[in-house]
Amino acid sequence: MKAPIKIFAGSNSEYLADKIAEAAGLQVGESSIVRFSDGEFETCYEETVRGAHVFIIQSTYPPTDNLMELLLMIDAAKRASAYKVCAVIPYFGFARQDRKDRPRVAIGAKLVANLLMAAGVDRVMTMDLHADQIQGFFDIPVDHLYGSSVLLPYIESLKLDNLVIASPDMGGSKRANAYAKYLKSGLAICHKSREKANVVGEMTAIGDVDGKNVVIIDDMIDTAGTIAKAANMLKEKGARTVRAIASHAVLSGPAIERIESSALEEVVFTDSIPLKSTCPKIKELSIADIFAKTILNVYNCQSISSNFIL
User: Fold this and answer.
1) Residue 139 burial (CB count, 10 A)
2) Is 6 a catalytic residue?
3) Is the pTM higher than 0.85?
């Protein structure tokens, strides 16, 4: 007899789990959290998971309670005799710490991978990792999905002439180039120097943007310093319009204010992270369908490559 499928949600990803479950024709299972007065908490499944193929949906954006809750839910499922446990992590936190870029720093992404495997997870499903090589930090299957599945159709729906896809920095040039090839558009790359983390120094553009409709592509927007500075610089160089498309709406600190006061026409995100605040320039697209299809394909031992555009 085939193992039953069950979907559960971490407390801060219930909004997305509900949409994924609905798209998959399933229901989110019952779970609870007991919180102690000192901040410690305990997770519990309120229904049996014995012999089930369990999918736990939880993005690990700050605070770290989201990561800890996911680890506890994985451990609880394994101890309750679940057949398989898959961690569905639309936004994989600590992914920016993928290497030692200076002495005496941690490789946080590898540590998180170790923690997930130590908790007993059998599979990880995520989207638009900050660095593709993080998949290699795991010794278990990793399904790396792409926000392009919903972001590319949106760009096409805008029907922009003289389109140029731009990368906000050199690190994102591979992603921007893939979008530009698919859309048969021009390509521009913004070159920046950082004074320190989250602080952008000088910036210039490589490529022709004069009279063009520019769409900046990135995996995440945190403080919006890079995106806002890039948009203003591209506008100064003659761009007709400037938009930004990103998978993850981290949006910390002065991000909203910077977006509002920048030359950006609009900023489009997926719903991998819930929007804590917003403004008229921000638009959100749902990734529920792509995750629902992938979850069902994994459960039914079918290929997931048909779910990718890029």
Assistant:
1) 9
2) no
3) yes
